[in-house]
Design brief:
binds calcium ion, four-stranded antiparallel sheet, about 550 residues, ten-stranded mixed sheet
């Protein structure tokens, strides 16, 4: 009898414990989280100290690293089409370019704003929504209670005294873009923090996009030192002559404007000045001080470039710090999810390049980190393959929003919880279309697994490339024709075909080329400033 009573009491305690724990895990996330989505433009993992790399000690990013340190750092978040507008469209819709219709920047037209995007869903489901900084899709943002976005130079924006579209009205602001966008964001946060609804804030920096103009206080930050060079700085493109070896994004293609050379005073405004500024961007034009050898000139251009780029990143880092401090000071940390990312990666002299576009690692990999103290283990690192079409379904699930909207991406909330599903994607599909402007990178599609990259470059060449990422992480040995990899290649081609079918992009090369050739219109309606440079440069088509 005594024993039975004890068993009964023990069982009762277990039941109560089970009940209360179930109950608490159910109630744990009932309070809707706030979401702050911070995206810089062309920010790459090599420039973020949380990812390590050669600039880690010289140019650390302590505030961005705080997001990673207090949350989860992702090592394998990949972009489906490594260029600004198309990546943004994929993020907003959860769909590949072939479904959202936004394939290219140059002649890519305007993003069809009548289609569904995740901010619209948040707004519909009771969130306060705000957008600050760069939008860059040609059309006005939809789904925001408030917006203030860069509206000069075809929504590309300017670093200094930029024009912003403030809820429908253009306003010229005074100051530095990265600081200004954060000012607007914090002002809005301040007005939103006491409202009953949760908020979704999208803060998208123009920096560190070309022309890499630092804040005045950082202009001469590293003048006294020589920045290190990436391992593939002197890539000879052997075995990749028609692809990596035939671009206009090497150290030879920096313009006078990129190098911040001072324009002669006697030049007329308009075409004459533009032509002078953009000298260097065409084949055969080299910008360097007189008397330098080719190698010295190449290093001089890299040093100017990398110092300006990293100085722009420093301002982004400072401003991320301002947002983090604000949340802390206002007791918003616990219930606010912070995402920090970029629209793609970028080459910082890797393979001798600047810019992006290629399936090669440095532009394919996106910086990505999420902080959500309630749910995500601080200091965790994840290596699963995730792509930018997975962002929208994930954000919606985190907010407890269900939708019937069709998205090709998959929510990775289980990954954030530390429980990656056994059947999680082991490969991603990539497709880049824009050619020849800008930078003359051949259109290509491909598949990337954690071990291999297989790509087909097809516009007016027919070149396959295969890289063994374990043996050749720098991707300098194209082993497509190596018989030892015949079986691997055959398997990857099957995987690639499956992904093309899955993502509804299983078309003929003729159809793919049509997309490259189609002029969907230009984002710049009113061609009047330096962004119209392609009007002056002669188009080079092979
Ligand atoms: Ca970009």
């Amino acid at each position: 009898m005594k024993d039975n009573t004890l068993i009964f009491i023990s069982l009762l305690i277990i039941c109560i414990k089970l009940f209360t724990s179930c109950n608490s895990s159910k109630t744990k996330f009932t309070q809707k989280p706030n979401i702050i989505y911070i995206m810089a433009d062309d920010l790459t993992t090599q420039a973020i100290s949380a990812y390590g790399g050669i600039y880690k000690e010289i140019a650390p990013t302590p505030n961005i690293d705080r997001v990673a340190g207090e949350g989860m750092l992702f090592q394998d978040v990949l972009v489906t089409n490594a260029i600004c507008g198309p990546s943004r469209a994929a993020i907003l819709t959860g769909n590949y370019s072939n479904l959202n219709g936004y394939y290219k920047n140059e002649s890519g037209g305007k993003f069809n704003s009548e289609q569904w995007t995740f901010p619209q869903e948040f707004q519909k489901q009771g969130y306060k929504t705000g957008l600050f900084g760069k939008w860059h899709l040609g059309t006005e943002p939809v789904g925001f209670d408030t917006f203030k976005y860069h509206n000069s130079a075809g929504q590309q924006g300017h670093y200094w005294d930029p024009v912003f579209n403030d809820n429908g009205t253009d306003v010229k602001e005074k100051g530095y873009a990265t600081n200004l966008s954060t000012d607007f964001a914090l002002t809005w946060l301040d007005s939103s923090k006491t409202s009953a609804e949760p908020f979704l804030m999208i803060l998208q920096y123009k920096a560190p996009h070309r022309p890499w103009e630092p804040d005045t206080k950082y202009e001469t930050l590293w003048d006294e030192i020589e920045m290190p060079y990436p391992a593939t700085f002197n890539d000879t493109y052997e075995g990749r002559e028609k692809t990596a070896g035939d671009t206009e994004m090497t150290m030879e293609y920096f313009s006078r404007r990129d190098m911040k050379l001072e324009r002669p005073k006697n030049l007329k405004k308009g075409k004459e000045s533009i032509k002078w500024d953009f000298y260097g961007a065409k084949p055969g034009e080299i910008v360097q001080p007189k008397g330098m050898s080719d190698e010295e000139g190449r290093k001089w251009r890299y040093q100017n470039y990398i110092k300006d780029y990293l100085a722009c990143v420093k301002s982004v880092d400072d401003n991320v710090g301002r947002v983090l401090d604000y949340l802390k000071e206002n007791n918003l940390e616990e219930n606010t999810i912070i995402i920090l990312t970029s629209d793609q990666g970028f080459y910082l002299g890797d393979h001798g390049f600047f810019d992006k576009r290629f399936i090669y690692e440095e532009s394919l990999r996106m910086p990505f980190m999420v902080k959500y103290p309630k749910r995500i283990k601080a200091g965790s690192v994840n290596e699963d393959i995730i792509t930018n079409i997975d962002f929208a379904p994930t954000l919606l699930e985190l907010a407890g929003i269900s939708t019937t909207q069709k998205m090709q991406g998959t929510s990775f909330v289980p990954v954030l919880d530390g429980n990656t599903p056994k059947d999680w994607q082991d490969a991603m599909y990539y497709h880049y279309y824009e050619f020849p402007f800008w930078h003359h990178v051949q259109p290509h599609y491909g598949v990337r697994t954690q071990k291999y990259t297989l790509a087909h470059f097809y516009y007016n060449i027919d070149v396959w490339e295969l890289y063994d990422l374990e043996k050749d992480p720098n991707q300098v040995n194209n082993i497509y024709n190596n018989p030892d990899y015949a079986e691997v290649t055959a398997e990857l081609k099957l995987k690639l075909k499956d992904l093309m079918i899955k993502f509804e992009d299983n078309k003929s090369l003729v159809d793919f080329r049509k997309i490259t050739d189609t002029d969907f219109g230009r984002i710049v309606d009113n061609i009047k400033d330096e962004e119209s440079v392609q009007q002056i440069l002669t188009k080079k088509v092979n």
